[in-house]
Specification:
It contains eleven helices and 20 strands. By secondary structure, it is of the alpha+beta class. The chain folds into three domains: 125 residues, Electron Transport, Fmn-binding Protein, Chain A (Pnp Oxidase, Chain A, Roll), CATH 2.30.110; 176 residues, Beta-Lactamase, CATH 3.30.450.40; 111 residues, Orthogonal Bundle (Arc Repressor Mutant, subunit A), CATH 1.10.10. A seven-stranded antiparallel sheet has the order 2-1-5-6-7-4-3. Strands 10-9-8-13-12-11 form a six-stranded antiparallel sheet, with helices on both faces.
Length: 462
Amino acid sequence: MTIRLDSLDHCFQGIVPGAIATCSRDGTPNISYLSHVCYVDANHVALSCQFFNKTRQNLDENPHACVQIYDPVSFESHVMRLRFLRSESSGPLFDSMSLRIQAIASHTGMTGVFRLLSADVFQVRSVERVEGFLQPLSPEDEAVPPFSPSSDAVVTELSGLQLVSLRINRAVDLAGLLRDTLVALDEVFGFHHGMLLLPDESGTRLVALASRGYGEEGIGAEVRLGDGLIGMVAAERKLLRFAGLGADLRYGRAIRARVNELSGPDALAPEIPLPGLPDASSQLAIPLLMCDRLVGVLALESRDSAVFARWHEAFLQVLANQIAVCIERMMQRDDEEEAPPPAASRPAPAVGSRRRTFCLYRNDDCVFVDGEYLIRNVPGKILWKMLRAHQQEGRTDFCNRELRLDPSLGLPPIKDNLESRLILLRKRLEQKCPDLRIVPTGRGRFAFEVSCQLELVERDSA
């Protein structure tokens, strides 16, 4: 083998489709395009067995194959000469490849239709660069010096982990931890678009409580477990990395279009919209786990197809473990109270003449402000409790323990839910109703500041 497989990481990201050539026992050739070639180890690769009936038939008759792959960064091409070894329909390799396909299937509404039959493992007998695939540089191109970043711009994996870890450890509350994690990943590694999602009170959905690069629209985005790329990561508790995401989705949609053509437009579930960038080309989603319990999901994406490399998986999994531990620590202390500051140190906000009408729909605990949806479920109940207490008693000071012990709020027994609900409520108020503010005043305590006239209405249903 003249070229090491692990030096061709970009070729295995699926950004540029490869091609496989096989032939039958009598020598009849067949060529098919490949959406993804999976790197297994220094001597093996795997291909997904889905729709390639002729390819599989040829391999059963003749185990030799030739696969051409392409580097989307250098534009070089390489040819791998392979020997088919076995098909795996279970185990870690199959599960990893299947998860990728399930995520695309879920996103394009083809769960159960678009699925992996087996992971076909090949021995790599040789790898050769295709000479003459690229035209030689012109004299003008050769005169342009290659880009070389300054030494200050180069951040090693270890120093990067140190810088991000320091930022996380300095966070004093859950909101700061989530925010500072995304800021650090942006500043240190240039991951400009990301979000941190935590489970809601039902445990069936994830809610984005911190985002970077999406403006206000990222906060509050919801994903059901098992839906799309992020939902699949949460359901299976396994990392997913996609490069050339647009190509994978186009491939899935092409299959979907064919199914619709044969079976009608109602044969498949609707496509799941991705929270975040509508034109993302790469995505990396990592579950945040404590033992096997899901604490949240870190999701990063980019319009650059080759921004996430294989080493990012190991690096960010180490970081994800630290984030999960820090989230757990923050959650465990959310009932601890410090003494409230003197009342004189926090003057009450001036109440303006503006009148706001808040309406609670009891059937689903949705709260609307001036006819516009604001928030629902447990955060909606918390807001309504504070609105009534402020209107009837003039209260401004509340504590986490009081909320947790209130049976009317229906908080789940998992202790880590309340603080995340308060973060979501505070963010939604900042976006939709800045006349109401939740201001931390100490550990486990906060002030509910109101600078408008309140009108509260309750209805059974919309």
